[in-house]
Amino acid sequence: MFDIKWIREHPDEFDKGLARRKLEPQSASLIALDKERREVETRAQELQASRNKLSKEIGAAKAKGEDASEIIAEVSRSKEAQAAAEEEARIKTEELTAALSTIPNLPLDVVPDGTDETDNREERKWGDIPSFDFTPKEHFDLGEALGLMDFDVAAKMSGARFVVLSGALARMERALASFMLDLHTEEHDLIEVNPPALVRDNALYGTGQLPKFADDLFKTEEGLWLIPTAEVPLTNIVADCIIEEDYLPRRLTAMTWCFRSEAGSSGKDTRGMIRQHQFTKVEMVTICEQENSDEELERMTSCAEEVLKRLELPYRVVTLCTGDLGFGARRTYDLEVWLPGQDRYREISSCSNCGDFQARRMKARYRSEGEKGTRFVHTLNGSGLAVGRTLVAILENYQKEDGSIVVPNALRPYMGGLEVIPANG
Fold first, then answer.
1. Separation of alpha carbons 110 and 130, rounded Å
2. Is residue 121 part of a domain?
3. Is residue 111 one of the residues assigned to a domain?
4. pLDDT tens, 274-320?
5. Is the pLDDT of residue 50 over 90?
6. Candidate list 347, 368, 375, 412, residue with the active-site label
7. Which of 27, 350, 352, 383 is labelled catalytic?
8. 331 included as an active-site residue
9. Which domain holds residue 126?
10. How far apart are CA 111 and CA 319, in angstroms?
11. Per the residue annotation, which of 260, 299, 330, 331 is the catalytic one?
12. Residue 260 falls in the annotated catalytic set
């Protein structure tokens, strides 16, 4: 969400930022709507002042024994006119808010220009891509052959884009989440949270999923929404709050189920666990002072990278270009893990700095010691990691020719010491 005052003062900068996202200029129409809103508000205030003056005249006339009926009638007309002006101002305000709420965040100067993922900038790589003396299989072929990954059974009860994991793979998913949470809380100093998985409209509005992306979400008949990521409840912890600066930075993590309708993903990753309606994810959220958010983005990204390093999974880090940047982000690093079965890197984490974009929507502010006013916090979010995709990466990178899967060393304590998932499951 943008401050309309800032847009009035920086229209060219605003439109330039939108142009980098391949959007048409909008400052002129927004400023015009804001002008209409302020004019109506001014008229309502003037009518109120006039009525106050007339009310005093009524008292003076009555004190003199004069007829005040005309003045009373004028007050009545003024009251109706003021009510009409206030209603018009309310409508204009709603129109302006609605227009502002669908405009994405502006990219930072360091974000490369581009149209789609092919224009993302590679920053670094880690790990050696494994070589096989056989043709590596994709995770769904491996999982189904083990008898521990069943999409058909899931489809009977829930439809497409669901899976039933059992045995060692079910345990591995649980083990991965526990491993990630332990790493983040014990070594990265994040605070573990167990948040609600159902939220109201205002929570999704605050983080930017509503109103623009309602079709990507699941909603209950009672009006609550299933969270698409723990970013939503974790970030909203500070919604409508004024917090003290010594509370910051607040670094949080949570493991939750996440739910996405994948409305815009028809035909993409229709097989396997890459794109599911329900999946497990360990999320990281940071709430910090404005000056420190760039530094916090680097820190958060390194926390996500450390998970992949401990699991010895090769990956690369890319900076998303303007055409691939998420709605609320002003800068994003994607971590892409190597999948031998697909012979390419695939996203496993996105770490984003949203600046004050979400904070303005949530009205989340902080007060610095010795300062009179308040400032909007900066918010960041990142996967640390997507658990299902991490399981996919382990299956494909640690597969053996006979279909067995070697368990990464870091995960064995969480798997009861299991070193290999045998080919017979």
1. 33
2. yes
3. no
4. 999 999 999 999 999 999 999 999 999 999 999 999 999 999 999 99
5. no
6. 347
7. 350
8. no
9. 117-421
10. 7
11. 260
12. yes
